[in-house]
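Example 3.2
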Amino acid sequence: MTMKPYSLVRFDTPTLGRNQNQPEGSKHILVVEDEQDLRQLTAEVLIDAGYRVDVAGDGIAAWTALQHSQYDLLMTDQFLPKLSGVELLRKVHAAHLTLPVIMATGCLPTWGFAQHTWLQPVNMLLQPYSFQKLLTLVNNVLHAPISVADGLPLRSLSTEPALPPMSRLTT
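Structure, written as tokens:
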């Protein structure tokens, strides 16, 4: 993969701002990942695919970003410093933010799902994943019709809609 120049808005520091180099009209994604190399590589892949990308290294920075910018997609890890992925989704739900979510994690947060059954519709991407699977899922999530059932603010989407809810895992 050829790397091209890019610039990201980072929410790892208290300074917030909008990246003036991001193309207008493209979908805006917030990537939340505490592992710097994975965060950077994921952002680069998404930028190369034409998406505008902001990054955050922990749950608190992500929550701050969500309060200051509008996103078309939230992609988050579960195991984050300061605020876990499930805790971040609880805040998103409580604030009635309507955006699709992909949780990319190495371990399913089954306890968090058991406590908060409304999390079940969140799209899961099991790590390690290929960037082709990432791009396929992102494309499917961003281009699927909104399905807000039972008043839930999160989109209930799957890469394979015919599968039962417990099979929404992409590996």
